[in-house]
Amino acid sequence: MKSLLLLSILSLSSALTQASFACDLHGKSGIVAENSLNIPVGIKAMGGITEIQFNKVIDRVGALYTKKVASFGGNLTFERNWTDGTVNAYAHRDDATGKIWYVSMFGGLARHPQMTEDGFAVVVCHELGHHLGGFPKKKDPNGALRWASNEGQADYYATLKCLRNYFAGMDNASVVAKLKVPAVVTSNCQKSFANSSEIAICQRSAMAGFTLGNFFKVLMNTKVAVSFTTPDKTKVAATDDNHPAAQCRLDTYFQAAICDKSVRDDVSDSDGNMGTCTARNGDKVGLRPTCWFQASSLN
Q: How buried is residue 113: exposed, middle or buried, by Cβ count under 10 Å (0-12/13-18/19+)?
């Protein structure tokens, strides 16, 4: 049963391409391109996370960010669609007032065989990042800026700010000790942070991003493995608002994890230098990757 279902998922995922699902006029944006995958409740042998883990992650992110969203005039609302087999997640806002800030999570994504609890936390943080991630923003077909941070920025915010808050106070060293953390991750985290707690959060965040990188690889049916040592060398002429390729997204999670800017330094909707690592700020590492971000847009 497990093998048959996995083959079904892989065959469906072959229909996905690097072409990305852009934010529609209502500001709805998925963590991945629209797809027809469906993983129903009860497929326990496949892996993924449990309903208890699903709710635990959402509860923690909600506890951390409900007041912050309220300070911007929003009402953070999680849609917990555990019984829905959709393999995706969304962020959108109430069309009438724009004051209800939705994060819609689905059981199908949580039950995907590549998903872990930390990986799921990155997804929730990514969707929150559409609301709070700051510059650069998505644009409508007429070129007008929308409320949502673009896909790359939502990824960047996920491990730059949200996941650091999420992991704060946990026994991250014990978790990291059980992971096969590549030397390149450890060395970069040690260069960016002096505090052992911050180093452990950096390592754990990077590995959570690696989980998502592999998840994207499977869904997009990419043949080449994602790796911390093979960054995407693409250089975009203009910032791409859509979903980057799997390797590019891993690069974003990793660079955000090793950026040494404080979690308390807020990002800005208009100034992409605030609270982030940029060349203008004098930073050498932790910059948003050129495979989706054009630094000239900061000027």
A: middle
Q: Which residues in the chain belong to E strands, given as ranges?
A: 29-30, 75-81, 89-93, 100-106, 137-139, 145-149
- Tell how many helices (H) and how many strands (E) occur in the chain: 10, 6
The answer for residues whose C-beta is within 8 angstroms of residue 160's C-beta and 6 or more apart is 256, 257, 259, 261, 263, 267, 275, 276
The answer to whether the pTM exceeds 0.90 is yes
Please name which of 104, 213, 212, 206 lies closest in space to residue 163, comparing C-alpha atoms: 206
Instruction: Please state the domain extents for the chain.
Output: 2-298
Closest CA to 299 of 272, 276, 277, 266: 272
Per-residue pLDDT of the chain (299 residues; tens, 9 = 90+): 444 444 444 444 433 433 333 344 344 559 998 888 999 998 766 789 999 999 999 999 999 999 999 999 999 999 999 999 999 999 999 988 999 999 999 999 999 999 999 999 999 999 999 999 999 999 888 878 889 999 999 999 999 999 999 999 999 999 999 999 999 999 999 999 999 999 999 999 999 999 999 999 999 999 999 999 999 999 999 999 999 999 999 999 999 999 999 999 999 999 999 999 999 999 999 999 999 999 998 86
3-class secondary structure per residue, 112-162 = CCCCCHHHHHHHHHHHHHHHHCCCCEEECCCCCEEEEECHHHHHHHHHHHH
Classify residue 179 by burial, with Cβ atoms within 10 Å: 0-12, 13-18, 19+: middle
A 10 A CB-CB count for 106 gives: 26
